[in-house]
Every structure is written in structure tokens, then in C-alpha cells.
Design a protein that fits this description.
about 140 residues; mainly alpha; Sufe protein. Chain: A; two-stranded antiparallel sheet
């Protein structure tokens, strides 16, 4: 599936809920479904700067596609990173770098997060794009 198809799927799932408490619960459920990150990846180097909670993000390139894994110590944040992984993981660096992540606004995520969580969300997206950029640069050598 393309990044946009995955975003549309997320938007459709979230549109089933009018109440933001239900949407938060869905985020928590998504976070709980996230595979635990191997302890060896829980390093200072993998911590995302700019997040109030602790979020570790690991990226690997497999067959030209970026595979993300992550973990957070906060339930809602874990759900947010799970959503980002669902949309971006398994795509090429170019696809990730060129993606317009419209689902964040469409599901109202930015409007319903505290300013610190909003900053954290932006930091997560930025870090995922930085990994994609690094993999792209390495493959162009």
C-alpha cells in the first residue's frame, strides 16, 4: 500500500469516532499493539530530542525500504509513534521524504494534543525523515 492509501485508512478508522476520548483510547490501543523495542535499541542515540516523554526510534534499511521500530514510556505517545510507523515504515527513503502527512490534520491529532505533545509529534516526524535522508545519502554514494 502507498503512504497515502495508509493515511486514508487511518483517517477512515478515526472517523468512526466522534468523541475524542474514544480516539485517545484508540491511540492507546495502537500503542499497546506496538511490538516492544529490543533493549539494545533503547539508547541515548535513539532517543528523540524534543519529546517530553521518552521515545526511542530505531530505523533499518531492508531491501531499499526503511523499517521503523519504536517504543515510548507514555501510552498516547506510543500510539502516535505506532501510527507514524504504520504509515511510513516499509517505504523507500524517497517516498518518506516526499510524503505529505495530511492524516495528522485530518484526524484532528494536532488540535487535540497539548503543545508539548504536538512538538513531540513534529520531532518524531522530523527524526523519521532524517533517517530516510541518511539512508538515501548512503545509497547515492
Amino acid at each position: 500500500m502507498s503512504i497515502n492509501e495508509l493515511q486514508d485508512e487511518v483517517i477512515a478508522e478515526f472517523s468512526d469516532f466522534d468523541d475524542w476520548m474514544d480516539r485517545y483510547q484508540m491511540l492507546i490501543d495502537l500503542g499497546n499493539e506496538l511490538q516492544p523495542l529490543d533493549e539494545k535499541y533503547k539508547t541515548e542515540q535513539n532517543l528523540i530530542v524534543g519529546c517530553q516523554s521518552r521515545v526511542w526510534l530505531q530505523a533499518d534499511e531492508v531491501d531499499g525500504k526503511v523499517i521503523f521500530q519504536a517504543e515510548s514510556d507514555a501510552l498516547i505517545v506510543k500510539g502516535i509513534i505506532a501510527l507514524l510507523i504504520r504509515v511510513l515504515s516499509g517505504h523507500t527513503p524517497d517516498e518518506i521524504l516526499n510524503a505529505d502527512l495530511y492524516f495528522i490534520d485530518e484526524i484532528g491529532l494536532k488540535d487535540h494534543l497539548s503543545p508539548t505533545r504536538s512538538n513531540g509529534l513534529l520531532s518524531m516526524v522530523k527524526q523519521m525523515r532524517m533517517y530516510a535522508l541518511a539512508f538515501k545519502a548512503r545509497s547515492n554514494q
